[in-house]
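Help needed: design a sequence for this.
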């Protein structure tokens, strides 16, 4: 992005979306802005539409109504989304949806190759990115044989290797131990691009974002409308079903 780019990196206005074959909106007149400098976290219950929201931004789900504006351009048709997808790094919730090459190095180099880099330069970028995440030892490993947490890191490397202008991260810490999570926190905090992070882990979200949103009834609730907190307690019959009032 240049200084002449609009401050609104991503803007959704009055977005409605219902899953095919249903008549209930999972996104219901939803508005969202991701601007330069934004580091937004999203914490909301399963099934609230968080992942669908990211897919709408990327054009993977087409809204029934509303306006999508990315990098100052209104996007309506598939051809409109194609050029912006190379500028938005999307980390899928399931790493297996993102990794399909034989080896780790191939997976991470795939993006730079599609951006027009030579094979040699793409490999160099991939290796630097793997080293940045501390997983350079995996480069010749067969991707589908990795653990869930290892796949998560490789998928993150594949996203970062493309040098995106904005990141959309769907549960980036899934399967990662505390040590690796700390490394990811360090990496995100050093980025100078906006990002939107979906997570169920409060400590992680609060460490990498400056605002936390939630979702309810298909709409986004912002900082002043929510109060997210951890609920930690111990009592004698905690293993049995009980109600908190």
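Sure. Designed sequence:
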């Amino acid at each position: 992005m240049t200084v002449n780019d609009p401050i609104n990196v991503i803007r959704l206005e009055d977005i409605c979306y219902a899953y095919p074959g249903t008549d209930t909106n999972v996104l219901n007149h939803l508005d969202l802005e991701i601007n330069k400098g934004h580091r937004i976290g999203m914490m909301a219950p399963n099934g609230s539409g968080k992942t669908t929201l990211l897919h709408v931004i990327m054009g993977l789900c087409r809204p029934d109504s509303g306006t999508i504006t990315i990098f100052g351009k209104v996007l309506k048709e598939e051809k409109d989304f194609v050029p912006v997808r190379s500028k938005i790094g999307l980390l899928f919730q399931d790493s297996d949806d993102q990794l399909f090459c034989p080896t780790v190095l191939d997976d991470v180099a795939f993006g730079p190759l599609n951006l027009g880099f030579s094979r040699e330069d793409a490999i160099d970028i991939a290796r630097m990115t793997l080293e940045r995440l501390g997983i350079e030892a995996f480069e010749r490993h067969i991707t589908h044989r990795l653990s869930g947490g290892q796949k998560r890191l490789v998928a993150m490397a594949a996203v970062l290797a493309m040098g995106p202008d904005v990141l959309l991260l769907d549960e980036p810490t899934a399967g990662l131990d505390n040590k690796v999570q700390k490394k990811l926190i360090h990496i995100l905090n050093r980025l100078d691009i906006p990002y939107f992070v979906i997570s169920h882990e409060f400590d992680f979200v609060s460490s990498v974002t400056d605002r936390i949103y939630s979702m309810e009834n298909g709409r986004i609730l912002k900082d002043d409308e929510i109060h997210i907190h951890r609920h930690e307690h111990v009592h004698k019959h905690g293993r049995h079903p009980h109600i908190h009032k």
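The two ends are 49 Å apart (CA to CA).
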